[in-house]
């Protein structure tokens, strides 16, 4: 996800404008065009399936179908497909705790993702993470992306110096990714990516993703599907860790031109943050994550209590215990000395 988000933020304006013209054109020319295309496609399929060299063509189609994730433009299709889907078909309102709930994305390992050990190459996990994170961000924050993306009109984010709306298009940048591998994934093995919001600070939105063996873990419920939650048992807890294949942490930054947008602007405009008293979610001095003294850490909260800003802040702080260690890895760049004491050589291919 990058500056392309700026264009998707305008879809809510563009799509209605072209929808009427498209529908009218389709109604007028559709039947004739469809009849012609149907005949052409049918003739082409007959030649493809029965003509000379059909075995080679069918084998090529089978190979490409089983390795679709690695064909040209497959990554682009996965990312933009997720963006467009959640922009054109936005979610319904979610219950307050859903901010920290998982989005599940399913996939399968293809032959072209294998390394010489005959399991999924570690490098290919990051393409899967791109797809899973995009589903999460666009599902949760599509309305916020749209509103903040039109900031000149909505005036949600204002300059701290002048009080005027910040100009520019909204972009989403990936700041860093860390991935810990526990088990291998075999050829054609199906798996799931469980991705959720971990925490945020004044600059970054932190996201955690677990690669999990498909079908071995089942959530107690899905938000908004109307079905009652199933009972969560001790056996569910006992079996969780053995099915985790890998875990990744990522962090996103939101920008209007060169201005860094506090993540809570998008969370609030997406209806995911309860109102916080006092200075709100962006108060509390330089850290701008709320006044730290306004939450009694020793206060017990029952699972049956109403979900309030205190629940959100407790979960955010719990996530930051892990995210803060991840953030310190940024200082690793200071280790680079440019080969001041020498280098081994230059090698290729790279």
Automatic annotation (TrEMBL):
Matching SUPFAM superfamilies: Thioesterase/thiol ester dehydrase-isomerase
InterPro entries noted in UniProt: HotDog_dom_sf, THEM6_lcsJ_thioesterase
Signal sequence annotation: 1-23
UniProt keyword list: Signal
A Pfam family: 4HBT_2
PANTHER family with a match to the protein in the record: PROTEIN THEM6 (PTHR12475:SF4), PTHR12475
Family to which this protein belongs: Belongs to the lcsJ thioesterase family.
Protein's recorded name: Capsule polysaccharide biosynthesis protein
